[in-house]
Amino acid sequence: MTRDNRSAGAAGAGIDELLGDGRARRWWQRSATWLALALVVLVAAGAWLWLAQKKSDGAPRYVTEEARRGSLTLTVAADGKLQPTRSVNIGSELSGTVRRVLVDVNDRVTRGQVLVELDTAKLGAQVQRSRAALAAASARLAQSATTVREAQANLARLQEVARLSGGKVPSAAELDGGAAALARAQADEKSARASVDDAKAALSNDETNLSKASIRSPIDGVVLSRSVEPGNAVAATLQAVTLLTLAEDLAKLELEVNVDEADIGVLRAGQKASFTVSAWPARRYPAKITRTAYGSTITDNVVTYATRMQVDNADLSLRPGMTASATIVAVELSDALLVPNTALRFDPAQAAAAAKAGSSGGIVSSLMPRPPATTQRSARPAASASKSRRVFVLESGAPKAVAVTVGITDGRVTEITGGDLQPGMAVIVDQLSAGAAR
After folding, report:
1. Of 218, 207, 209, 228, nearest to 97 (Cα)?
2. Domain 120-212, what fold?
3. 408 contacts 73 by C-beta, under 8 angstroms
């Protein structure tokens, strides 16, 4: 065959190959086979991914927080009122008419200063009458003394005559009469002396009443209130009428608050506190506990204990009677190991049961909000029958129990005083239900 014939045959073969020669192809040469195989592989991969995702969604997932060291302050909240360290209600022991009032509200007074004067016309007359009665009693005493001396002299003469006469004269009856006259005179003298003492006492009482007509201040202080005007009638009964109220020193006040019985156990004298008043809501005033009462007060079946705090009021911005909201610092810790209170309440079994119940409830139950976790109204030692508790840490994706000893709590975090928990460990605080968002 010549070269030209071979070339023509090769060209024809190429054309036949492109156009197909009508012969059957092998299976690996078919494109449909490869497309079907690729589809099977894709479906298998999708099924594997779906199963893996379903398994992952079905596994429990946990919310964790890190155990850390930090500060913890245990505080107690209470309300009360400000009052002076010492206040005195000024009244009158006497009945009468007010003649003058020499002070007014906010005036500063000194000890012994005259505050109110009563009309002294009747009191002065009583003093004069008592002086006259004393003078009359003194005159009767002098007369009785003279009678005693006369009776003594008469008896002495009778006795001398009897001695000189050898007992013949005077008669025994005359001697007895002289002795009786002397005894009567001496008794009259004692009675007159007692009358003098009585008159002196009456005069002293009337003079004291006259002096009490000028009502004086018993302390150095400030007039807080005044409820009397000149011309008012004062009727002194079993209880003295309050005319004025004095405060000893407004630069130092007392805050008395009522502390709940659940909090009183952590309070001690000397603990620091702070409070606010409505007049200055942005300012916190410092205070210090001076006394906690042992006696209780019951109001609407609520037991409280009065606690007093010392307050510095050098700028006189506070006034007696103001209502205050106090916060007492019972315990301060600066480097304590702390965990959230939710970690102490977490239990895997209960969480799993709750998650299962939530998942079986369907869409409605998953949309229902969870009730908020309850916290204590104020801080106090961790309420528990035993201080030995446990928390759960996440280890290899599973919860592991760790024994701990708890201390105090502020209602949000709790102090860990012992156990195997170390700072930095992730403690479990909650469990998410299957399929929940990450």
Report:
1. 228
2. Helix Hairpins (1.10.287)
3. no
Q: What is the Cα–Cα distance from 277 to 240, expressed in whole angstroms?
A: 34
Q: Residues for the chain: how many in total?
A: 438
Per-residue pLDDT for the chain (438 aa), expressed as one digit of tens each? 444 545 445 444 554 554 455 555 566 666 777 777 778 888 887 777 776 665 555 567 788 888 899 988 888 999 999 999 999 999 888 888 999 999 999 999 999 999 999 999 999 999 999 999 999 999 999 999 999 999 999 999 999 998 888 888 888 899 899 999 999 999 999 999 999 999 999 999 999 999 999 999 999 999 999 999 999 988 877 567 789 999 988 999 999 999 999 889 889 999 999 999 999 999 999 999 999 999 999 988 999 999 999 999 999 999 999 999 999 998 888 888 999 998 888 887 776 666 666 555 544 444 455 544 444 444 455 544 456 788 898 887 788 888 999 888 888 899 998 888 889 888 888 887 654 444
List the one residue out of 407, 410, 343 whose CA is nearest residue 375.
410
Helices 172-212 and 121-164 pack at an angle, to 10 degrees, of: 160
Cα 29 to the chain's mean position, in Å?
93
- The domain limits of the chain are 28-58, 60-70+337-432, 76-85+250-333, 87-114+218-248, 120-212
Q: Which CATH number fits domain 76-85+250-333: 2.40.30.170, 3.40.1010.10, 3.30.830.10, 3.40.50.300?
A: 2.40.30.170
Cα 426 vs. chain centroid, distance in angstroms? Answer: 37
Q: Give the global pTM.
A: 0.61
Helix (H) or strand (E) holding 143: helix 121-164
Phi, psi dihedral angles at 26 (to 5 degrees): -75, 165
Q: 162: buried, middle or exposed (CB in 10 Å: 19+, 13-18, 0-12)?
A: middle
DSSP string, 307-363: EEEEEE-TT----TT-EEEEEEEEEEEEEEEEEEHHHHH--HHHHHHHHHHHHHTHH
* Residues 320 and 253: beta-carbon distance below 8 Å: yes
Name the burial class of residue 96, with classes exposed (0-12), middle (13-18) and buried (19+) by CB atoms within 10 angstroms of its CB.
buried
Q: What is the rounded distance in angstroms from the CA atom of residue 266 to the CA atom of residue 376?
A: 15
- Tell me the CATH number of domain 60-70+337-432, given options 2.40.128, 2.40.160, 3.40.50, 2.40.420: 2.40.420
